Amino acid sequence: MMKLEVLEYPNSFLREPTEAVNITEESLIEVRKLARAMLDTMYADNGAGLAANQIGNKQKVLVIDARFVGTKRPLVLINPKLTWKSEETSIMVEGCLSFPGIGFSIERPEFVSFEAYDLTGRLQKYNGEKNPVLSRVFQHELDHLNNILMIDLIDDVELQKSTKENFDKEAV
Ligand SMILES: [Zn+2]
To answer: What is the pLDDT of residues 1-22, one digit of tens each?
Structure first.
C-alpha cells in the first residue's frame, strides 16, 4: 500500500499544464509505479478515479474504477483522448478527491468513447456508449489533465447550493 496525499483545491498544481508520456519501455516502468500508487490512493479514499496531477505528478495518466462495489476492475489510461461524445446529456452529482465532502451537480454528455495507451504501451479503444458511469468518470478525470475543475463547470447558484448542502451535512 502506497497511499499518497491528494492535492486539494485551491492547490495551484491542479492548474499547471500536464505532459504526455513518452511511450517507451523505460518510461512505462515508471508509469507502472505511478499507477500502482494512484490506485492505492484512489481505493483508500473510495474514489472512482484519480488523475496524476492530483497527487503532484504532471504526466497524463489516469486511473479509473467505475464500479463502486464488488470486484476491483482498475483501468490505467495513459495519454487519454476523447474520440466521441453523445449529443444527449445528463446531470449527475459528482464528487472529487480534491474537493473532499462536496458534491456538484454537473451536466455532461451522457456517453463518450475514448482511447488511451495501457501499461504495455498498446493503444486501446474504450466504447462508453452503454456505460454512463464510466463515461462520466472519464470526462471528470480527463478534465483534470486539462486543468478543468468542477467549479469551472457550474454556475453561481449551483455553487452556493453545493456549498450550503455540504455545510449542513458537516454541521449534523
Ligand atoms: Zn476530481
So the answer is: 788 999 999 999 999 999 999 9
- The CA 144 to ligand 1 mean position distance, Å, reads 7
Cα of 82 vs centre of ligand 1, distance in Å, is 17
Domain membership flag for residue 40? yes
pTM of this prediction? 0.92
Which structural domain range is residue 104 located in? 12-170
Find the 120 Cα to ligand 1 centroid distance in Å.
Answer: 26
Answer whether residue 122 is part of any domain.
yes
Higher pLDDT: 72 or 20? It is: 20
Torsion of CA 69, 92, 49, 154, to 10 degrees: -160
Whether 5 sits among the annotated catalytic residues: the reply is no
Q: State residue 171's pLDDT score.
A: 46
Distance CA 111, CA 147 (A): 21
48: CATH: 3.90.45.10
Domain membership of residue 118 (yes or no) is yes
Over 35-55, what HEC string results?
Answer: HHHHHHHHHHCCCCEEEHHHH
Q: How far is the CA of 96 from the centre of ligand 1 (A)?
A: 4
6 occurs within a structural domain? no
Q: Report the number of distinct structural domains present in the chain.
A: 1
Q: Which of 141, 158, 165, 170 is catalytic?
A: 141
